[in-house]
Amino acid sequence: MESSPRKKINFDNTEIAFRNKTNGELNQAYWLFKMISSNFLTKIGPPITNFLLNIGFPIKGAIKATIFKQFCGGETINECEHTIEQLSLGNVGTILDYSVEGEDEEEVFDFTCEEIIRTINRADGDPRVPLTVFKITGIGRFALLEKLDAKQELTATETDEFARVKARCEKICQAAFDKNVPVMIDAEDSWVQDTIDELALEMMIKFNKEQLIVYNTYQLYRHDKLADLKADYLIAKETGFILGVKMVRGAYMEKERKRAAEMGYPSPIQPDKSATDKDYDESLRFCVQHIDQIAFVCGTHNEESCRLLTELMDENNIPHNHPHAYFAQLLGMSDNLSFNLSDAGYNVAKYVPYGPIKAVMPYLFRRAQENTSVAGQTGRELGLISKEKTRRRL
Prior knowledge:
The protein is of the alpha/beta class. It has helices at 14-17, 23-36, 39-54, 60-65, 67-71, 81-89, 106-123, 142-149, 156-179, 190-207, 225-239, 253-263, 273-289, 303-315, 335-343, 357-373, 377-391, and strands at residues 93-98, 131-134, 183-185, 214-219, 243-248, 294-299, 325-330, 348-354. α2 runs antiparallel to α17 (377-391), α3 runs antiparallel to α16 (357-373) and α7 (106-123) runs parallel beside α9. Mean pLDDT is 90; it is low at 1-5.
């Protein structure tokens, strides 16, 4: 039976997009994106800020009240409560993301593992926190993963060390399974990704038999990831588990290309943006086609991909709130996508990073740089905020 034509989502509807922002918050976001749009500031900001933080200069308050407030939920899970509540007013879920990175000590990895489990416990029984997330490099040493990916032999000490990484990963996924709270494993640099993929697959085979618990992340700016997704689907079908797919375009393009050029191997990155878009949209089609066997999170700030997924779901008579289909964006960005999608009844969640200010700074700098490097992103955010300011006569 054919479904009746449905209303097209208007991603320019700023009244819905900023419904839960006060006039003061809207003005603050406007000035923040104005500052971010200055490439000069985005380039000199990180070294100056790091220097001031390292010498103990009192700038934490200024950071917390501006860029931190825009893109992060707080320094602790408890401090994120206000953000969880604000997002839920627009029927948008929260993905608590403990964003501490670049550590090397075993005790830090153990602490991070326990903190991720605390996010799972916080999500337990609260539909406002539908998904959780972690990075393997948050619970294990990057150089160790790099060695594994390069197929180098590990020393006895390193073998024990990797056994602990695996045990932490399993402990997190077991906690997620026990509480029935889905957990996403984030993608990272290509030269540690094979090891991460193997771990993720192992966890899915173990925990995704009855219900969807573990998602792996596929970066479609890599030219081999669509093929990997399809291959993993065949493994899932054969082995009898639900494949969890979080699809993103990707976050490390410049770094990936630079390393490939320096080390003389072919770049894993697509030749151009249209090739990335093509694979991303093809992955959406593939997941929708196999929605019984695949649960997916469409992680994107791209309007066209969001629109395509809504159309694919309607064409295939898939309910907007199907538990296997989610949209996800980052806190502080693309509210026009998140809130207009949730207003149309789709499952939507925002990544809400949190952690000590100093530890979260690398994440914040990436967001600022991303907003200037992604073609038109800052302009788009500013344009929408300006439109809403005009509508409110501010």
